[in-house]
Amino acid sequence: MEFRQFGHSGLKVPVLSFGTGTFGGRGEMFAKWGKTDVQEATRLVDICLEHGLNFFDTADIYSQGASEEILGAAIKGRRSDVLISTKATFAFGDGPNDKGSSRYHLVKACEASLKRLGTDHIDIYFMHGFDALTPVEETLGALDDLIRAGKIRYIGCSNFSGWHVMKSLAVSEKYGLARYAVYQGYYSLIGRDYEEELMPLGLDQKLGLMVWSPLGWGRLTGKMRRGQKPSEGRIAQGGAAAGPQVDDEYLYKVVDAIDAVAQETGKTVAQVALNWLLQRPTVCNIVVGARNEEQLRQNLGAIGWNLTADQVARLDAASACMPPYPYWHQRGFADRNPPAVAR
After folding, report:
1. Mean pLDDT over residues 152-167, rounded?
2. Scanning 87, 102, 154, 301, which has the fewest C-beta atoms within 10 Å of its C-beta?
3. Residue 3 bridge partners (DSSP)
4. Residue 240 pLDDT > 50
């Protein structure tokens, strides 16, 4: 297993982490993601640890807390061997203070996550989204206090806009508060928006990227090809409904390119898509999920080898698309405003 520095921190993490959104299956949306119970989860954790993957990602809202509970049970007795990240901000209850990134909600949410996970500390605590109603100083002050209390080790942000991130980093610097070490965001061969603003920001501010949904809501697993609809998995069950829409022709063009590279390398479509991400600037970790042992072992096969420069270039070309303004305009000034990756 390859380990990389976790963004702007001294922590080293494996390049793959295991996402536990499939644990629990509570609620309509998460039931479509998966219904992994404690016994199955324990087996998946065993396999991860056997392969050097010791980093597990969850969130308080996954299956209404069941994901954290099941993960906590699966790692019982080996907490010192693993890294855990979880998240807060989104609604966990019906009260007016049961959501957001206020001091009130974050302290309450952190305590509840610690209890469900059965641990006394969380290694990385993410703000799951940006709360514009709460002063950034309040959010970062609360997180800084939780770090000083030993309840969390590092903090990260997820799904923030670029200006949300920069405002937060500026407040941390101004007041000497804990700084976001890493950004957790969507990035895939069919979702490259991250490259336009957030990737240059990450390079400039030394903010690492922890990728979620690296297979584009299951569209890059190899089950979706021209004239072929998936018969199983999350998409077949409607679990991708919340994801961004992807034009069919664009999707098939990208999958065709991945397929060609997969045949050259002897790897699967999913393994090629994951390995491409590992070649991108700022990427320090990719969150992979799995409903079963077979899927997990396939995802683990994405490491230990590298695509060639030519193969990366072909995948880049097949997945390229026009960015929104002002990024398409900035491409005309590339000698003074170079892109984070070649296009």
Report:
1. 98
2. 301
3. 14
4. no
User: Would you name the residues annotated as active-site residues?
Assistant: 62
d(CA 50, CA 44) in angstroms, rounded, equals 10
Residue 233 has a pLDDT of: 54
Domains detected in the chain: 3-217+277-333 (3.20.20.100)
Angle, CA of 266, 271 and 274, to the nearest 5°: 145
- Give the C-alpha separation, 244 to 240, whole Å: 8
Instruction: Give, in degrees to the nearest 5, the angle at Cα 32 between 30 and 34.
Output: 75
pLDDT in tens, 287-297: 999 989 999 99
Is the pLDDT score of 234 beyond 90? no
C-alpha 35, offset from chain centre: 20
